[in-house]
Specification:
CATH topology: TIM Barrel
Number of strands: 8
Structural class: alpha/beta
Largest sheet: 8 strands, parallel
Number of domains: 1
CATH class: Alpha Beta
Order of helices and strands: EHEHEHEHEHEHEHEHH
CATH architecture: Alpha-Beta Barrel
Distance between the termini: 19 Å
Strand order of the largest sheet: 1-2-3-4-5-6-7-8
Number of helices: 9
Shape: globular
CATH superfamily: Metal-dependent hydrolases
Helix content: 40-55%
Radius of gyration: 17 Å
């Protein structure tokens, strides 16, 4: 009963086998996939996928900081309309990225503020991207994020950064990097973070876990991340899966499947 809370399976990397990727993930026990947008076209594609796989695939709509300059009035209104469609559970992927700097910082900040306001108006959680921008992101959440909750997706910081996110009422989501041997700070956070405030994701097609590093990532590989987080926490894999699934259902208001339709968590062979 795993949930991949962040997988860009609407992207071109999956054009040749998207249906198979979803089916294989389900067979491997990944019973819910959240597909975030990064601009209007990818948000629309995510919504279309959610409509095609109701109850299995869910969408988030948003404009990524790389594409912040595209969030004009027309794009925002389209995003607002898409966010009201069935199967949409969040505003995202939004946030700040001062690493690649593909949009001016002020443009990124303005886009983030606008989308925080949209999330508040629609009572939806946000999916936050945060790269080399933590101080500004936390500051903007403090100033403009009242009443908004959500997740720091693909969290890669240390305990200080984690505490600041948690103190703002946000969840932490762990992806492939937590399986990489040299990420000791991140491993410490995964071991320490409150069990009721953590999520799992792949960030497909990026950041494949260590056993399949270098390959295209896909939702079925979220099990590898789950096993590593369970190991770091010294708890049974099944208990970690149950907790993170409950957390995802709570944050994103996902329907809980009847017991008879819940697939078994199959062990994966890379």
């Amino acid at each position: 009963m795993l949930v991949d809370t962040h997988a860009h399976i609407q992207m071109r990397q999956f054009d040749s086998d998207r249906e198979s990727v979803i089916a294989v993930a389900e067979a491997a026990g990944v019973w819910r996939i959240i597909v975030p947008g990064t601009d209007v076209p990818t948000s629309r594609a995510a919504v279309d996928l959610a409509a095609r796989y109701p109850g299995r695939v869910f969408a988030a709509v948003g404009t990524h900081p790389h594409d912040a300059a595209t969030l004009d009035t027309a794009a925002l209104e389209t995003q607002r309309e898409l966010a009201r469609r069935p199967g949409v559970v969040a505003i995202g992927e939004i946030g700040l990225d001062y690493y690649r700097d593909l949009a001016p910082h002020e443009t990124q900040r303005a886009a983030l503020i606008t989308q925080l306001e949209l999330a508040r108006a629609l009572n939806l959680p946000v999916i936050l991207h945060n790269r080399e921008s933590h101080a500004d992101l936390v500051g903007l959440l403090r100033e403009h994020g009242a009443g908004v909750r959500g997740v720091f997706h693909c969290f890669i910081g240390d305990q200080t950064m984690a505490r600041e996110a948690l103190d703002r009422g946000f969840w932490l989501s762990f992806a492939g990097p937590v399986t990489y041997p040299r990420n000791t700070d991140l491993a410490e956070v995964a071991a320490w973070a409150p069990l009721d405030r953590i999520l799992l994701e792949t960030d497909s097609p990026y950041l494949a876990p260590q056993p399949v590093r270098g390959r295209r990532n896909e939702p079925r590989y979220v099990e590898m991340t789950a096993r590593r987080v369970a190991e770091l926490r010294g708890m049974p894999f099944e208990d970690l899966v149950a907790a993170t699934t409950r957390n995802a259902a709570e944050l994103f208001a996902l329907p809980m499947a009847p017991r008879e339709e819940e697939p078994e968590c199959a062990s994966l062979t890379p």
